[in-house]
Amino acid sequence: MPSSFQRYRRLRWMRRISQGFFLLLFFYLLLQTNIDALDSPDEVPEISAPVELFLELDPLVAVSTVIATHSLYRNLFLAVIIIVGTLFLGRFFCGWMCPMGTINQMIASMRSGRLKGRQRLESNRWKSYQNWKYGILAFVLGAALFGSLLIGFLDPIALLTRSMALVVLPAYNVLTHDLYSWSLYADLGPFSILLTPIAWVVHAVLIRAETVVFEQTFLILLIFIGILLANRFITRFWCRGLCPLGALLGVFSKTSILGLEKRASLCTDCNRCAMHCQGGDNPQPGLTWHQTDCHLCMNCVASCPESGIDFTFFPKREETTQKVSLTRRAVLTTAGAGVLTVPLLRAATNPDRTPDPSLVRPPGSLPEREFLSRCIRCGECMNVCPNNALHPTLMQAGAEGIWSPMLMPRIGYCEPTCVLCSQVCPTGAIDELTEEEKNWVPPAGKEETAGPPLRIGTAFYDFGRCLPWAMGKECIVCEEWCPTTPKAIYFEEAEVITREGEYLYLKRPHVDPALCVGCGACTYACPVKGAPAIYVTAVGETRNTKNRILLEQNRGRAAEER
User: Fold this and answer.
1) Judging by beta carbons within 10 Å of its beta carbon (0-12, 13-18, 19+), is residue 17 exposed, middle or buried?
2) Using CA atoms, how far apart are residues 64 and 89, in angstroms rounded to an integer?
């Protein structure tokens, strides 16, 4: 028996090492694209690591995408690895691999160290709120059945990626950048010699990433902080009661051949197993063990000196339940609510109608209805954008499209040769492109592009704010920044009379909608402060045949469809 006790203690340490490894791997992949961008600031970087790996391993992303689109995009088949492992071993992903689960456990361990005796024991017993996650799972899968991927709001991998990429990492970079800048000029006597190198290491070495900011992230921050703070009151509350991925893996784990075997004759009722349980699944003899809630943390068997419990293959299951504690009526009700939620959301903003003019999607984005059936709001495309041009929406795409990506050209423009956002999208909401398919700039050695470019919008002038038009001042910045060949912005020579009565010849800019691709470079570079004198709207985008401005484009599209 003592040898079994020691074996499980070693196994628990292996689990901790596994958690640390996958957490570090998650952060490494999250940072990798920004590091690539810093290493090649004058070139468009290429992806050198599978930055979307955790999302592709996520069974909930794969299953919901299949339900919503009836297809399995690119590398989502990798989720089969986790599904097959769960069918035989149980929820090993939650206890050994999930970075969100590891962070929750780290926060919860601070609380559990303060709880003593009966209070700690009671907090780790199985509670009825642990059924909530199955209702959430039924709800989001019901929405997927109606063609909307609402799982992105609560899927743990998408949620963690979004929170880290759009909130935590930018906040860290801003803080450490300001600290480093302050250290360069702070007069702290002999401490200045140490402070500046330390600030530089913290900002540019430990986490070396691009300093960017994102719009509409306050709500993302509140939700993430709320999930973490909940662990201060209930151990791993997110994992036990809310996580839809944990619920899906719990359903798969019903067939697990690895389970907990209880030996009541050896139990001394010390309750150490329950004191250290992370899943709240009642591992102690005399109570019903909930197999679908076990995270395989191994704390229970590693804490039992008498070997009164043991994980074995094909165990005796007298004190085990493999059922999901949710009635069929509750499942049907929550799934039906998910189905009905989608048309209610689309009653206000129908994806088939002309979109909000400011809703400029990344190049390669599918038509809006198909886009919403694939986008999980993970933020990978925003994180990888070298110009900080992509930002999460608020209500521009309606409630259904909250936190999906959109172009904000006043902050950053779409790089003509960049297709990184299409490469990192794990579900195909942004279809994978090549530079030739995007076709914004001519290939090397050629003066013009071959064929029509992929358009994401069209630029328009506000003549009341444009310097040559409204104030008689020379300005050609927009034309200089226009990347297309030939340029979409051209000039007309105009003779104007100044207040002093002098004649002045100005170049007044115009946009050729047949050449404009909607990249936003002109808006980004416009020297007019505040609202720019030139702005981009989604009209003319390639992905929407109804959102066109030129009759020739519509006719050409119709001919292609015939």
Assistant:
1) exposed
2) 23
Helix segments in 78-168, DSSP class H: 79-89, 92-96, 99-112, 117-123, 132-145, 156-163
Q: What is the pLDDT of residues 475-485, one digit of tens each?
A: 999 999 999 98
Full domain range(s) for residue 534: 368-561
SS3 309: strand
Whole-angstrom distance, CA of residue 371 vs CA of residue 147? 10
CA angle, corner 7, sides to 4 and 10, nearest 5?
A: 155
Domain for residue 531, yes or no? yes
Q: Please indicate, yes or no, whether residues 262 and 388 belong to a single structural domain of this protein.
A: no
The b/e string for 166-177 (b: 16+ C-beta within 10 A; e otherwise) is bbbbbebbeebe
Other Cβ atoms closer than 10 A to 60: 28
What b/e readout covers 76-99, taking b as 16+ CB neighbours within 10 angstroms? bebbeebbebbeebbbbbbbbbbb
| Helices and strands, counts by H and E, the chain | 24, 10
Question: Does the N-terminal peptide bond of residue 513 adopt cis geometry, omega within 30 degrees of 0?
Answer: no
What's the pLDDT tens digit per position in 490-546?
A: 999 888 877 777 888 889 999 999 999 999 999 999 999 989 999 999 999 998 888
Domain boundary residue among 266, 292, 321? 321
- pTM, entire model: 0.89
